[in-house]
Request: fold
Amino acid sequence: MAVCYKRLWKLLIDKDMKKKDLQKLSGISSSSIAKLGRNETVTTELLEKICIALNCELSDIAEIHDVRKESAGE
Reply:
């Protein structure tokens, strides 16, 4: 399983926001933004801060992909 944050980036586009805006609004670090950009593991606390800042649900910013199915072509 792998987490993907494409929904977060699309939401930022829809809200006409930049990553720097999200960083300031949510109070997260630039290294956390970089981790999100690489689809790396982050804490649920960080995701909660983003959801509060953007007034959205977790499912609005992240999704889980089954990499086993994707690599098998399903």
About this structure: The beta strands are 2-4, 63-65. The chain has one domain: 2-72. The chain has a mean pLDDT of 92.
